[in-house]
Amino acid sequence: MARLDPFFKLMIDTQASDLHLSAGNPPLLRVHGDLQKVKYKILEDEELREMLYEIAPEEIIKKFEEDGEVDWGYEIPGLARFRVNYFRQRKGVAAVFRLIPNKIKTVEELGLPSLLNKLALLPRGLILVTGPTGSGKSTTLAAIIDYANRMRYDHIITIEDPIEFVHEPKNCLVNQRELGTHTKSFSNALRAALREDPDIILVGEMRDLETIALALEASLTGHLVFSTLHTISAAQTVSRIIEVFPPEARDQIRMSLSESLRAVISQTMFKRIDKPGRIVALEIMIATPAIRNLIRENKIHQIPSMIQTGKKYGMMSLDDCIMDYLKKGWISPEEAFIKSIDKTRFLPYVQNKEAIDFTEMPG
C-alpha cells in the first residue's frame, strides 16, 4: 500500500473534492468548498517527495524534474481516479489531487435539467460547457457523454489533459486519448480525429486559436463536438471564441459559429447553507435561429435578453437560477452577489456588506 493511500481514503470518507500536500504544511482537504487541515504532522520536503514519487510513473517524475510542474492522472483500482498536479514552491514540492469518482452520475442524479440528455443525441454541432475552475464542467460533460454511450451506436473520441472520467464502452466504441501520453496537443489529436471516423468528439479544453478552429471545422463537417471554456456566461463564451481570431477573420468565424453552435451551458458552483454540500447554478443557451442571427450580425450583447425570452426552449439565465436558489434559502446572499452577473439585482439581499468584494459594488 502506498503511503498516500490513507489520505485518498480519507478524501472519500469526508466527501472531499481535493487533497493538498505541500512541503512545510500539514495535509489539507477541500470539503464542500472549504480547506480543512488534516490531523497529521507537517510534511517535510524530502519525505513528501518520496511519497509523491512512490505513486508516479518514471516519465512523470522525469517531466516534473525537468519542468517543475506536471499534470497527470492517477487511479486506485476499485476506489477512484485523481487528476493530479505536482509543482515546486518556496519550501519544496507540492501536489494537488482532484477526486474523480469511479461512477459517472447521470444528469438526473446530478439534479441537472433533462434537456442536457437531448444534447447528447444531436447529430452534429458544437456544445460548450463553461465556467470557472472547480465548477463541475467535467462532471456535467461526463454525464452527457455517458448518456450518448448508452443511447447511441457510434464512435466517441475524447481528448483530455489528463483523462478524468473513464467511459467503458456500452453501445458505443469509446477511445480516450491523453495529452503527453497518447498525443502531443489538443490540436494534433483533433486534426487526427477527423480521420478516425468519429461521431462524437470531446475536446477537454479549447485553449488556443488552432484548437478552436479545428473544433469548429469538425462540428461543421457532421460531427458532434463537446468542449469547455473558462467563461461565466453564454454571451461571454461567444465573444471569447470570436475574439481569439484576428479582426480580418472574425466575420467568417461569426458565420461559422452561428452555423455550428447548438448550446452553451455555463455553470457556477455554490456552497449550500441549508445543509452540507454544494449546488451548481446554470445558464443554458440554446442556439435557436434568432440567437444564430444575433451571432452572425455581431449583436452578442442581445443574447442575455434572448435567453430571458427563450424559456420555452429550455433556456435559463444564470442570475434567474441564482435568484431561485437564494429565495429557497439554499445559498447565501453574499455568494449570490459575488457570483451573479447583474450585481444590482442581488445587492438588496446582502446584509453583511463587508463580506463581499467592494470592487464589485455598483456605483
Describe this structure in words.
- The chain is an alpha/beta fold.
- It has 2 domains: 5-101, Beta-Lactamase (2-Layer Sandwich); 115-331, Rossmann fold.
- It has helices at 5-14, 45-55, 58-67, 115-119, 137-151, 186-193, 209-220, 234-244, 250-260, 289-296, 303-308, 318-327, 333-339, 343-346; strands at residues 16-22, 28-31, 34-37, 69-76, 80-89, 92-101, 125-130, 155-160, 173-178, 200-203, 224-229, 261-271, 278-286.
- Strands 9-8-10-11-7-12-13 form a 7-stranded mixed sheet, with helices on both faces. It has a 6-stranded antiparallel sheet with strand order 3-2-1-6-5-4, covered by helices on one side.
- It starts with a helix and ends in a 17-residue tail after the last helix.
Give a short synopsis of this structure:
The protein has 363 residues and is α/β, with parallel strands linked by helices.
- Strand proportion: 25-35%
User: What is the highest CATH level, the class of the largest domain?
Assistant: Alpha Beta
- Strand segment count: 13
Average pLDDT confidence is 94
Q: Which structural class should the secondary elements be placed in? A: alpha/beta
The total number of structural domains is 2
Global morphology: globular
* Share of helix, binned: 25-40%
Number of helices: 14
User: Could you state the oligomeric state of the chains shown?
Assistant: single chain
Q: Order of helices and strands, N to C?
A: HEEEHHEEEHEHEEHEHEHHEEHHHHH
Question: What is the makeup of the main sheet?
Answer: 7 strands, mixed
Euclidean distance between termini CA atoms: 58 Å
CATH topology of the largest domain: Rossmann fold
pLDDT < 50 stretches = none
For the largest sheet, list the strands in their spatial order. 9-8-10-11-7-12-13
Which CATH architecture of the largest domain would you pick?
Answer: 3-Layer(aba) Sandwich
